[in-house]
Design goal:
By secondary structure, the chain is an alpha+beta fold. Helix content is 26%, strand content 34%. A 6-stranded antiparallel barrel has the order 1-2-3-6-5-4. α4 packs across α5. The chain binds flavin mononucleotide (FMN).
Length: 214
């Protein structure tokens, strides 16, 4: 496999000072809106985020999850609170996420602190999902060892029958996290690897921005 063959040039006009906003959440919303608008197909989800978490011993773990909203306060995603990520976040609420939109030559990185969303928020999202996904989330003890897939499928079927014509209750250990950002980085790929990077950092409640070397 020849990695030298894979060499893409990023040609665009880059990030102009006049494109920037004082509020990085608003800028993130704008970039996300462009990512959705220009998304090349339904097979690609522009709301996929790489989520990095760590425990207090410094063991780091990374996986993709789906961003489900961008609020003024931060970014929300949903998962199982007893999963590996859930356990790491219980120990260390700091996390980092990254999004990559290759068709725009753009990357966004966010660092922040997580907190669980309210039960109402988790309920509303859980019940907005297809019944099959609700059942799947309910029977899966995410990140724990399973003996067979068949057993999981049988549990799903059993739960479905138990709640025939009734809603599936939100499991105690399932819900959302809100990531409250304290750092954003907007990256725009440019020609000859002289990419643009703008960083926003919070200091005394105000966002300050600066450009970084690529
Ligand atoms: C594109 C994509 C989207 C995913 N979205 C979610 C999600 O929103 N929530 C979730 O719990 N897992 C999601 N997963 C599965 C996670 O990557 C991961 O396997 C799971 O959450 C267990 O991670 P953990 O053991 O580190 O807790 C997604 C996987 C992929 C590839």
């Amino acid at each position: 496999m020849d990695f030298q063959e894979i060499r893409k040039e990023y040609e665009n006009t880059g990030i102009q000072e006049s494109d920037l906003l004082d509020d990085p959440i608003q800028l993130f919303r704008n970039w996300y809106a462009v990512a959705v608008e220009k998304c090349p197909g339904r097979w690609l989800e522009p709301n996929v985020i790489a989520l990095g978490t760590s425990d207090l011993e410094g063991n780091v773990s990374n996986r993709y999850v789906l961003m489900k909203s961008i609020l003024d306060e931060g970014v929300q995603f949903f998962t199982n609170y007893d999963s590996h990520k859930g356990k790491q976040l219980a120990e260390n609420s700091k996390c980092a996420i990254a999004l990559h939109w290759p068709y725009l030559g753009r990357q966004v990185r966010i660092e922040g602190t997580t907190s669980k969303t309210s039960r109402e928020v988790s309920e509303a999202y859980f019940h907005s999902r297809p019944r099959g996904s609700q059942l799947g989330a309910s029977v899966s003890r995410q990140s724990s060892t399973i003996e067979t897939r068949k057993a999981l499928e049988l549990q799903k079927q059993k739960l479905d029958e138990q709640h025939k014509n009734q809603p599936i209750p939100l499991p105690e250990n399932w819900g959302g996290y809100l990531i409250r950002p304290h750092r954003f980085e907007f990256w725009q790929g440019r020609l000859d690897r002289l990419h643009d990077r703008v960083v926003y950092e919070q200091s005394e409640g105000l966002w300050k921005r600066r450009f970084l070397a690529p």
